[in-house]
Amino acid sequence: MVNGLNDNLLELIKASFNKIVIDKSKKETISKIFRVYSGFAFNKNDWADDGKPIIKIKDINNMTINLENLSKVNNLDKLKRAEKYYITGGEIVIALTGATLGKFGIVPYNFKGYVNQRVGLIFPKLSEVSVLGILLQKDIMNRIISLGHGSAQPNISPTTINKLIVNIDIKSCKKFDKTFAPIYQEIIYNLYEKQLLQNIKQELMLKLF
Prior knowledge:
By secondary structure, this protein is an alpha+beta fold. It has helices at 2-20, 76-81, 128-135, 138-146, 158-162, 170-208, and strands spanning 28-29, 34-38, 47-48, 52-55, 60-61, 63-65, 71-73, 86-87, 92-95, 104-106, 113-115, 119-124, 165-166.
């Protein structure tokens, strides 16, 4: 039920952004709406059985984050250095390399962790709902994916994404942002509730079997 509700809300954002904000007569760099930065370079020696969860490319799934089996880090020095990439829920991340190049995920409400290297953490100029409006536009997403280079392991540079020209009216985008921000909050809370239900189900299964 949660998935179906979010699907409807995402479709509403996608269609409304296309109608209200997309304007073929206007040209702006995507950096006017958001900037992308590659996550922190944790390495294999940092992983631990317990600690703060780290989002990797493999964890981005179906426009959200699969919170099962996340890698963890408890090295306090590394975590302090990674402070810029500490997230608390509601952020949007995007895969910058590999076969799933360009896939993005919305971080559920109340998540507390970090973003690994080659996962792009998006810093919005307005709010995440405008970011989402852009990423849901198929033609824009196809252009972002086409920026990838390298035959064996394609990569997208965050700088290249930030310089991408898009047909967006900034004034309309600001109005869209104010109107649809509450809907975005509903989406991230729905993702949080879904995770709670999954956790309860897992606990019950462990008790029963």
